[in-house]
Specification:
Layout (H helix, E strand, L loop, with lengths): L10 H17 L6 H49 L5 H9 L1
Helix pairs in contact: 1-2, 2-3
Length: about 100
């Protein structure tokens, strides 16, 4: 799995990794084989990252759906607001958008 570098700009993600890394590292402190220990840490981090990305994608989808549900109401409001109160250019814009 290749890490998307833009995640490093996400403060919530960086905080999650910073707080989780020490606990994960401690979990495998008994392992003497450093390669195995690193592989286990990476495995745990990968699981956290996948969960984080799924949660973030779900939030984004939910937000987009809520905007799509509000769109007809907003369009109706704009169209009703334009009737009788707007200039000709604004009315044309309201109908074309």
């Amino acid at each position: 799995m290749k890490l998307n570098n833009s995640l490093l700009l996400d403060d919530e993600f960086v905080s999650l990794i910073e707080t989780s890394y020490s606990a994960i590292s401690e979990k495998f402190c008994e392992l003497d084989d450093k390669q195995l220990k690193w592989k286990m840490i990476k495995m745990e981090l990968r699981g956290l990252i996948i969960q984080y990305l799924k949660r973030k994608a779900r939030k984004s989808r939910d937000y987009l759906e809520s905007l799509e549900q509000r769109l007809p109401e907003t369009e109706a409001f704009v169209n009703n607001s334009c009737e009788g109160h707007c200039s000709l250019e604004t009315k044309v814009w309201c109908r074309n958008s």
